[in-house]
Amino acid sequence: MYYEEHGSPSGIPVVVLHGGPGGGLQPSVLNNFDLKAWRVILYDQRGCGASTPKYSTHANTTWHLVADMERLRSHLGLERWVIFGGSWGTTLALAYASRYAERVRGMILRGVCLLDKWEQNWLYRKGGASQMFPREWASFEEGAGSGRGSLMSRYTRRLRNRRTRRTAARAWWGWEAALSTLEPQKDTTPISKVESLAVLENHYFSHNAWLRPGQLLAAARRFRFPINIVQGRYDMVCPPAAAHSLSQVAPHATIQYTLAGHAASEPATAAGLRAATDALLKIFINSSSRKLL
Known about the structure:
293 residues; alpha/beta; Rossmann fold; 7-stranded mixed sheet; 10 helices; 44% helix; globular
């Protein structure tokens, strides 16, 4: 498992969970932190980025990733850390906290995804986002090829075949990329990352990420740490209803809506994320000051 550390060695530790699954770490996420105050840990989840083996779906489930996080925390000698996650990274953050809440000091979440059935249907079945982006949906359907089975299972076959993987991956990621920003933007994701995203997203979403319905919301009711949520008002990949549900059940959650879609790079969301990290930092500083008094 590949990881990096940035910022102050004596700063508040925060682990960044990238999206996808399969997205890999992005150095631009460092812009969200005051690096004089935070110790930022970036890492590539199984099967993507510089972690090996690449594209592997063997022993690659949500709970394997949760175990990886706990090994990383222990390896770094950290008692507790803050979790910063976007999109799929929010799912993984909540799954980790469901088992290791005592290790979590706080969370910053962007574009909440609970991986409940309605979210899957919205994105990958006709009648949801397809109604908003019919032309792009038609290209997505075409990319699955013909044959028996659901759209998801047809993509699985094509993504497992090296001869058809690249074409299928471009169509798979093209659908998500088209939905990700409020204003249309040209997608510049390199093909290696496109393949990683497509293979691993299909693998995880075909299995509902090994989560039971409502599992993450049920766990969140027990959390006692602060959660700052930044949610694009017009997010077509992870609709705001999931973030709203989380904010209603988690005792110490706050939510900030931005004039944006799904992407972290959109200006309103980027500003919201920096404000969210600064606000959490202020809570920790004030808490430490009270203890000294």
